[in-house]
Each structure stands twice: as structure tokens, then as C-alpha cells.
Specification:
By secondary structure, the protein is of the alpha+beta class. The protein has helices spanning 11-29, 69-78, 80-90, 106-118, 120-134; strands at residues 43-50, 56-63, 98-103. It has a 3-stranded mixed β-sheet, covered by helices on one side. Helix 1 crosses helix 3 (80-90). The chain is flat.
């Protein structure tokens, strides 16, 4: 039984995803949503991924400052029909995908990796690996 490797996104998927991300960013920048979960919380759309058939899109979002992420994602979920209509007007597609909003956790991951790299033990190991490489010593 063979496992299927996930395929990378096609050029069209990437183009459509970027168009949707840009349209969502403009809509959210204009603060057109009147939901209490979004009040005073500027939202960044960090990435959009589109399915191969272009019927579904996942938008990764993060409120600036990272405060109350769950409330922002829930508010965007409630505004999905409105946002989809607005995206349909901004992006020329035969079919506008259903949009799902998810909190972007890449900032947390980056912060965790940065904290690991700042650890003195890791820095010492990295320094010794660099020294070994410069001196011509192998692993």
C-alpha cells in the first residue's frame, strides 16, 4: 500500500490564493465588519491556501498584537457569507471558494524556535559545530 505524497500547489492555485488574500486584506483594512469580536482589532491575513479544485480556501489570520485570537476567528466565521460576497466582487473567478478562517500559528512556532536558538546550550552547540566545520573536522 503506497502513501500519496501531498502535491505542491499549482501556479493557478497560488495566483488565486494570493488574489483572495489581497481582497480579504483590503476588506478587513477598511474595517467594514460590524462584529463585536473584531472591534478595534486590526487583522492580518498571512496566507490563503486554495484546494486543487478551487472550491475551498483556508485563510490564515492573526490579529495584530495576537490578542483574543479565538474571538477574531469566530467573528470572521460569522462574517463568512459577507466576506465571500465581497471577495466575489473583487476577484474575477467562475466560482468563488468557500472560505474558512484559521488562526495562524506560525508566529508561535517562530517564537518558540527563536527561544530555542537563544538558549545558551543550543548556542554553544551551534558555535562548536561552526568551529568544527571551519577547522575541516567532520562529524
Amino acid at each position: 500500500m503506497s502513501k500519496r505524497q501531498p502535491r505542491s500547489a499549482s501556479q493557478r492555485q497560488l495566483r488565486v490564493a494570493e488574489e483572495i488574500r489581497h481582497a480579504l486584506a483590503v476588506i478587513l483594512e477598511r474595517d467594514e465588519l460590524r462584529d463585536p469580536g473584531l472591534s478595534g482589532a486590526p487583522v492580518t491575513v498571512t496566507e490563503v491556501r486554495v484546494s486543487a479544485d478551487l472550491r475551498h480556501a483556508t485563510a490564515f489570520v492573526m490579529p495584530l498584537g495576537g490578542d483574543d485570537v479565538e474571538a477574531v476567528v469566530a467573528a470572521l466565521g460569522r462574517a463568512r457569507p459577507y466576506l465571500r460576497r465581497r471577495v466575489a466582487g473583487a476577484v474575477q473567478l467562475k466560482y468563488v471558494p468557500e472560505i474558512r478562517f484559521i488562526a495562524d500559528e506560525s508566529f508561535d512556532t517562530a517564537g518558540h524556535l527563536e527561544a530555542l536558538l537563544d538558549d545558551p546550550r543550543v548556542a554553544r552547540d551551534l558555535d562548536s559545530a561552526i568551529d568544527d566545520g571551519e577547522n575541516g573536522h567532520g562529524p
